[in-house]
Each structure stands twice: as C-alpha cells, then as structure tokens.
C-alpha cells in the first residue's frame, strides 16, 4: 500500500478532489460498489469535518436518496479498505466488535475435530467490522499471538477493488432499524475508537500502521426511529436533501453514460426529472433510486412518455399503489 498522502491535509485534499466517477458495471438494482456518485459541496464538507474530528458521520434522509452508496464511494476516493454492517431489528452492537462462534466450536467438539492445536479458543473468535476497520493486523490473527490460531479472513464488500492506503471506511447502515440499546452499546467504542475484548484480555484500537484519521465511520438513518441524544452528540450529522431537477439529470448522466450522446433519451429524462424534484411538503415522494429505475427502463424500451404503456410502467416502478395506498395520490 502507498503511504501518500498520509497527512490529514492530504486526505482533505482527496475529499475536495473527489470526482463523480463512472459505473464499473451496468446498473442493476441499487448501485453500492462506490464506482459512481455525485457528491455535493455539503457532502464534501461533512466528510472533511468527520476526518478532522474523528467523529462518525451520521447521514439522515429518506430511503433511496444515496446515503449508503456514499460510503463505498468515499472509500474508493481515499484508497481505503471498505467494511459494512447492515442493521436489522434484532442486531446486537456486539456483532460490530466481535463474536464467539460457539456453534462451530460445539460442532467441532461433537465431531471430535478438536485436536490439541485446534482447542485454541481464539480460533472461534470472529472479529467484527469495527475491529477490522481499526486494526486489521490483530483482526487477522484474532487478537492472538499464538501460531496455533487460524488466521481470519477480512470480509470483501467491493469486488475488483484493492485498498491503496492503510485506512478504512466503515458503513453502519440503517441504524434506526434497531432499538436504542444498539446505539447505546456503541457509545464508548465509537466515541473512543477503541474497545476491550475480555476473551483475550486486550484492547482493540487503531493499529500503528493505520492512518490516524482512520477509520472513517459513516452511519445512515431513514429517520424511522429517534436515535438517543447521547449517540447523536457523538456524531457529525448531515441531512441528505432530495435533489432538484438539475441534480437528478446529473445523476442520471453519471449512471447512464449513453445519455451524454443521445439527445432524444436525454430529452425524455429532462421531462421526467421535475416530477421527482424534492419539495418541502410532508407527502411521500419518489426516491432517486426509483427515478434511476425509470430512466433505465426508458433507455431500454422504446416507449413514449405519453403512452398508456408508460403510465403502467410508472405505476409499477413508482406508485406501487397496492403497497403505498394513497401516498402518491398527487403523482
């Protein structure tokens, strides 16, 4: 891995220079590989503040507005490793730090697979995403100095990508899905960027070969549940606002390069964009992701926007009337 730029000023310059990129693969579903993003000045500033302060960056906004995809884009832009943890309603904050694979250990015991070398307890200690983000060296050896411990393998969330610097971006996605105990369990680990593992009687903290500004932790919330005040206090908070029509057209061009050369298709996108423009009302609004789905259909199918078939397509992709009932009555 290269060590340049290793200073905070160098990392901040990388954030200022973040380019929008080009999709590495054809868009199917949500784009989470970090290859393309259109960062706003507000996003650039928020990432810089998070790097300077060492605080997690908490992104709030409706589903489909691009919160989660920012993390992998920033990781690629900085040359950092990328890890993620998707929160569910039964998630335990402990899983972010480490867990003991008791089931595998029990199975090995029942199958008489536990030889003298394999009875090493740390063989069943599984480092979590925060451990890998802080200190991948000790995570790989499961916090043990014994040669009998089997090395752990880091999770790979970005295919065909290799980090070029000793740093990490950690995404904690949809944290509002869990109850307040999940957030409260992370107050100390995220606030101090370290945690204690009693099984090995040792502290996990930023490794000596890692950049001081690492890891950059990005957390997302859809605002479905209020987060504890003590948790919010420890974060840099940025609401992700819905894009206007011009930004929607920019996003579409980034995801679908064909629009830059096909004026007819771009004209159709320009007609669609104002209808997806965010406003200040409290009514439900179609997401940027749904807008991109429609653009993809528009590019692939030869359908006129004023046709009956296109009206059906909009109902399938956006209105979803059976599920959303009257949320899009004004669509």
TrEMBL record:
SMART domains: AAA (SM00382)
Gene3D superfamilies: P-loop containing nucleotide triphosphate hydrolases (3.40.50.300)
InterPro entries, alphabetized: AAA+_ATPase, ATPase_dyneun-rel_AAA, P-loop_NTPase
Domain AAA+ ATPase: 53-244
Highest taxon of source: Bacteria
Region (Disordered): 18-39
Pfam families per UniProt: AAA_5
GO molecular function: ATP binding; ATP hydrolysis activity
Descriptive protein name: AAA+ ATPase domain-containing protein
Species the sequence originates in: Streptomyces pseudovenezuelae
């Amino acid at each position: 891995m290269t060590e340049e730029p290793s200073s905070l000023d160098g990392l901040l310059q990388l954030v200022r220079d973040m380019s929008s990129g080009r999709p590495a693969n054809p868009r199917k579903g949500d784009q989470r590989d970090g290859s393309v993003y259109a960062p706003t000045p507000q996003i650039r500033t928020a990432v810089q503040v998070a790097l300077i302060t060492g605080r997690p960056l908490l992104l709030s906004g409706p589903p489909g507005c691009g919160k989660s995809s920012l993390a992998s884009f920033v990781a690629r832009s900085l040359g950092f490793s990328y890890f993620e943890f998707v929160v569910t309603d039964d998630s335990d904050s402990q899983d972010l730090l480490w867990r003991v694979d008791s089931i595998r250990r029990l199975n090995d015991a029942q199958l008489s697979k536990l030889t003298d070398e394999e009875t090493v307890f740390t063989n069943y200690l599984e480092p979590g995403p925060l451990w890998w983000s802080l200190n991948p060296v000790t995570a790989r050896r499961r916090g043990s100095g014994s040669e009998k411990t089997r090395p752990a393998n880091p999770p790979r969330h970005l295919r065909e990508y290799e980090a070029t610097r000793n740093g990490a971006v950690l995404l904690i996605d949809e944290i509002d899905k869990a109850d307040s105990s999940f957030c409260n369990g992370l107050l100390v680990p995220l606030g101090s960027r370290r945690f204690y593992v009693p099984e090995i009687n040792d502290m996990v903290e930023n490794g000596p070969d890692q950049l001081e500004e690492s890891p950059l932790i990005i957390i997302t919330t859809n605002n479905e549940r209020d987060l504890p005040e003590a948790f919010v206090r420890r974060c840099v908070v940025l609401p992700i606002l819905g894009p206007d029509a011009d930004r929607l057209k920019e996003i579409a061009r980034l995801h679908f390069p064909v629009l830059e050369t096909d004026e007819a298709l771009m004209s159709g996108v320009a007609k669609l964009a104002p209808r997806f423009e965010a406003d200040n009302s409290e009514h439900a609004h179609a997401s940027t992701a749904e807008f991109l789905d429609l653009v993809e259909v528009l590019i692939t199918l030869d359908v006129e926007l004023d046709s009956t078939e296109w009206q059906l397509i909009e109902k399938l992709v956006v209105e979803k009337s059976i599920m959303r009932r009257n949320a899009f009555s004004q669509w």
